[in-house]
Amino acid sequence: LQRANEEITRHKIKNEISSLKDTWNSILESVDNVFDVIIKYSLQKLASLQPEQDLGKVDLSEQMKLLELDPAYIDFYIMENGVCINTTSYEDSGLILYSSEEYYKNFLLQIQEQGRTVVQRWTMENDTKRFKGYGFQGTEDKKYVVVVRCYSETADELTEMFRQRMNRIARENNKILSVNLFVCSENVPHGW
Fold it and tell me: 3-state SS string over 36-86?
């Protein structure tokens, strides 16, 4: 009888975790779709300024205000030859991206040459354990790559709710030591 009860409990826990994971994935996909639109819109608006204003010198914080975007969750970067020459993330000013992985350099060069727009799926940032998304677009004159980095308050809140629920499941069931969910990290290339 005790084994039967343990098996029922184990099955309930497994189903609850599976259901939480499915809900998590569904919500993140919805967040991904919403921010895909925001990122593409921001990229298009910024890149369209280049013929009129030099994006290397334009006030990106002002552009963010004009686009009604929250600077707590979004950053703009203007890249020239792999170097960040203008940004709303002042600690990243002067950042050299070409010195990182060769595939990343080739990825940025393709975007710059082709002027195409690429929006990456959300990934978990290693340092902050927050979900972030990136969008890239080359300017028409092929001088710059416009980059938009985006975090999501909704994803932050959902991540915390999910962690709390996983911890509660472990606390309520003394035979569970921990519950781990592995998500794609930012170090894994996505379609590059």
Answer: HHHHHHHHHHHHHHCCCCCCCCCCHHHHHHHCCCCCCCEEEEEEECCEEEE
Give the pLDDT band of residue 1 (cuts 50, 70, 90). low
Read off the pLDDT of residues 143-175 as tens digits, 9 standing for 90 and up.
999 999 888 887 788 888 888 888 888 888 777
22 residue type, one letter: D
Rounded distance, CA 177 to CA 170, Å?
6
* CA separation for the pair 86, 112 (Å, rounded): 16
> What CA–CA distances, in Å, run from 4 to 8, 18, 72, 136?
6, 21, 51, 54
Cβ–Cβ under 8 Å, residues 144 and 109: no
CA torsion through residues 96, 102, 107, 111, sign: positive
Task: Please list, in sequence order, all residues whose beta carbon lies within 8 angstroms of the beta carbon of residue 113, skipping any fewer than 6 positions away.
Answer: 138, 142
Q: Is the pLDDT of residue 127 over 50?
A: yes
